Structures are given as structure tokens and as C-alpha cells.
Amino acid sequence: MRRLFFTTALLSVALAPTLLAYPFSFKFGHVGNAGVQFDKTDIGVNPGSFAFVNSTTDPIVGQDVGYQFSIQSMSGGWPFGEVTTGDLIGLRGRFVGTNTISPITITAGSQSAAVTGTGTLELWDTSGADVLVMTASTSWSSIKTEGTAGNLNLGGSFNLSGFTCVACGGRPNLVFLASSTNGVVSASFDLPDPQFSTMETLTTLTSGSGLSGIYSFSGRATVPEPGFYGLLALGMSGLGWIATRRRQKQTVA
Q1: Cα separation, 69 vs 56, whole angstroms
Q2: How many domains does the structure of the chain reveal?
Q3: What letter does residue 169 receive in the DSSP assignment?
Q4: Which of 3, 30, 172, 226 is the most buried (most CB within 10 A)?
Q5: Does residue 244 form part of some domain?
């Protein structure tokens, strides 16, 4: 029994990095004319804020008005992903909430700032009557502009938590997501090409007053496999048991 426990503990620690290396993720892209929009109104010492705005057009599929993005691809999802690949594809979503931009740091060719504020990620099934299927808490940690690209949470900080199933029936990977402790969502948004328009930076996007234009976006959400945490906990408990046994033997000796 002790040998089995010892072996399991060592395998748990050894396999944990491997499990973490194969997370569950999905990619998303904006729909219609949805996008990222900046409010240039100062918030104390902070130069402004940004939010995701819903699409008001629905040129093709008839499911985009009122939403911001659709899930375009997915991978992973152990243990269900092998047999239910694609059960999230086509879901629509929204990032709800306003995000405050902290004072801007300017370096050669780029501008960046921390982001504060919390919001909600919503996933919706719009194949029939619109049904909210899942929510999660979001907190964009940073924003950066460089050239014709803007990035949110480029550093990959954990900024997804509180996954909650609202109507996950028939979608095992939503249940899988709901079992996750936290995750990472990052996004990029497109800025005008300076060859054809005024170059936009974080400074210009937050200078003056009123609202900016709306910039299309895409991104990825990733969560570690829940199995990673279980195996890691088992491995750590096994190592703790071994250390205790060693101390007991030393005391007896």
C-alpha cells in the first residue's frame, strides 16, 4: 500500500506539468460591427476607459445583433474533448463591463498601461431562442498598442474565474469549463494602417473627449485542465506523507 501511494505521488508530480501543457482553449472573433471602443473621459488621473460594444448589424447568419463575438474553434477539453470536439463552436458571447486605463507608459514604438475593473464573460446559444449558457468573471490586466495592433492581457495573466453553468446541458465542454478554477483570456484589436489614416496609439485613443471609433477584435481563452490540480494536490500530499514518515523514523532511531 505504501509503495503504491509512493509511486502514485511521484507519478502525479511528474505528470502535472504534462497535463498543464495540454490545456483547453477556444478562439473567438468579432461578429458584425462589434468591437472595442474607448471613452476618452478622464477618470481622476486615469486617461480613459474602454468597453466591448455589441454588433448592430447582422449581414449573414441572423444571430449577431446584440453580441460581440462567436467561438470559431476549440481544442482540448479532456476528458470529453475527444468525443465532443466542436460543441462550443458557434456560441455567441459578450464581454460586459467598463475597464479603466491607468496612466500610460511610453516606450520605443509602443504604449502600455495597466487596466482595472471587473466584468463578466457571457456565452450564449443562439441556434434557436437565445439562451445564456455560461458566465465567468473577467478582469483585463493590461493594454498595449504597437503599430497597427492593440493587445489586451498580452502577458497572459490569469483573468478568468467564477465559471458558472447556466444551461450547460448537452455541451460537456461547458461542464468542463465550469469545473475550472481560473483561466486566461487575451485579445487583440485592429488599429488603422498609418499609410491610409492617422496612426492611433493608446494616447490618441484616450485624448480629448467623447468616444473613439470601434475596432474589430479576436482572441483566445485558455484554462488549465482540472486534472492538473487534482494530480498536483495528490502528489504534494504524497510527498508530505513521505516527509512525515521519515521524521518519525528519525525520532525512533
Answers
A1: 12
A2: 1
A3: T
A4: 30
A5: no
| Domain presence at residue 18 | no
Q: 41-73 pLDDT, tens per residue? A: 999 999 999 999 999 988 766 789 999 999 999
In single-letter form, the type of residue at position 132 comes to: L
CB under 8 Å to 46, separation ≥6 — which residues?
100, 101, 102, 103
Structural domain contains residue 78: yes
pLDDT tens for each residue of 187-239 = 999 998 766 567 899 999 999 999 999 999 999 999 986 554 444 444 445 45
**CB < 8 Å & 24+ apart, contacts of 101-105:** 101/46, 101/47, 101/48, 101/49, 101/50, 101/143, 101/202, 101/206, 102/46, 103/45, 103/46, 103/47, 104/47, 104/202, 104/203, 104/206
Could you tell me the residue range of the domain that residue 159 belongs to?
Answer: 23-224
* Euclidean distance between CA atoms 48 and 207, whole angstroms: 8
Q: How far apart are CA 51 and CA 125, in angstroms?
A: 22
Burial 15-48 (b: 16+ CB within 10 A, else e): ebeebeeebbbbbbbbbbbbbbbbbbeeeeebbb
Q: Work out the end-to-end distance of the chain between its first and last CA atoms, rounded to an integer number of angstroms.
A: 23
57 CB burial (10 A radius; 0-12, 13-18, 19+): exposed
The Cα 149–Cα 162 span in angstroms is 30
Q: CA dihedral defined by 170, 176, 182, 186, rounded to 10 degrees?
A: -60
